[in-house]
Specification:
332 residues, two-stranded antiparallel sheet, 7 strands, 56% helix
Length: 332
């Protein structure tokens, strides 16, 4: 799936945050974003800023269970256009397909779908952010899918499986809401029975869909086309480095470009391949050293280095300290 490098935050976020009892100025301060951000005509955030905002919201919540509160205040009137397109779909399967298509208009997330004759599974992943995601973020996504289904069908439809990276403190409240046990897994997902995923949406409105779907597709194309080649190369490297792929030939192939064309286009953006590769490696190295307990030999492998010493020398040249010393600094 193509990825966007910036996201338009809809004005109705202010209304939603108010309904969630979140102080907007506090959230922006915690997120280290400009206090006047929402006074702008259009609010564009990078993936990193998007998750900074979520972290700020979580901190400003001060104990409020945001995902459960979202289920309480979520209404059709609060939806922006891509989500409204989903609820105008015939059923959950169609709604999820639209959300998968329009995710680049909503945020730095990707939605993987598994639709079979027994179940429908929606799995969420994020990109452009290597620090720890806000704890409430995954749960909020899964609550959103569940509540969307209930709003559209006017039925108490429960998922059969909910998987989150970390169980919430108020586990019983969440299991009561979902109507099923929560399980721990690497990637957040929610699974519904096939019959529930095909249940008719009472909000289905094909006439309304036809009115604004063309505009959505144009906006999607505009957002994706604005992504720089440097961003695209970085996105590919974030995925391919842990798989042992770091050479320019692989990246050029992923972009359907020749090696020479890729180098020429990067030069036009005042970049070069090695500089982009180094930045991605440095970002990932900081994440692995600060957020995981992975041994340095394994980190070197995940960053595409054939030898641990090569990684140690490279990291020391980037930051002025060795990987081992960086870990000591973090612990203290």
């Amino acid at each position: 799936m193509k990825r966007a490098s910036k996201f338009l935050i809809p004005p109705n976020w202010q209304v939603l945050l108010n309904d969630l009892e979140i102080n907007l100025e506090e959230a922006l301060a915690y997120a280290q974003l400009p206090s006047g951000l929402f006074s702008q005509d259009k609010i564009y955030l990078t993936p990193a800023q998007y998750f900074q905002l979520w972290q700020g919201i979580e901190t400003a919540a001060n104990g409020i269970e945001l995902p459960l509160k979202l289920a309480e205040v979520m209404t059709i009137e609060s939806f922006d256009v891509p989500i409204f397109a989903a609820i105008c779909s015939p059923n959950l399967n169609a709604a999820l397909a639209r959300l998968q298509q329009y995710k680049p208009l909503i945020g730095p997330m990707e939605l993987a779908l598994e639709i079979t004759n027994t179940h429908t599974k929606a799995q969420v992943s994020c990109y452009g952010f290597i620090d720890t995601l806000p704890k409430c973020y995954s749960l909020a996504e899964l609550v959103f899918f569940t509540q969307l289904t209930r709003l559209a069908t006017r039925k108490q439809i429960n998922p059969v499986t909910v998987i989150v990276p970390e169980l919430p403190e108020k586990l019983m409240e969440y299991e009561t809401y979902f109507g099923c046990p929560l399980k721990v897994g690497n990637t957040p997902s929610v699974t519904f029975l096939a019959e529930d995923a095909k249940a008719p949406f009472l909000t289905s409105n094909q006439v309304m869909l036809s009115c604004f779907e063309g505009d959505l597709k144009r906006k999607l194309q505009d957002v994706i086309s604005e992504q720089s080649l440097t961003d695209k190369v970085s996105s590919i490297l974030f995925k391919s480095l842990p798989q042992g792929q770091s050479n320019i030939e692989h990246v050029a192939s992923e972009l359907a470009l020749s090696k020479r064309s890729l180098q020429r286009k990067l030069t036009a953006e005042k970049q070069n391949y090695q500089k982009v590769l180094q930045q991605v490696r440095e970002d990932l190295a900081q994440h692995y050293l600060m957020q995981t307990e992975l041994p340095i030999i394994e980190i070197a492998f995940l960053l595409g280095f054939s030898e641990t010493n090569s990684f140690v020398r490279a990291y020391s040249s980037w930051t002025g300290v060795s990987p081992a010393h960086k870990r000591i600094q973090v612990k203290h």
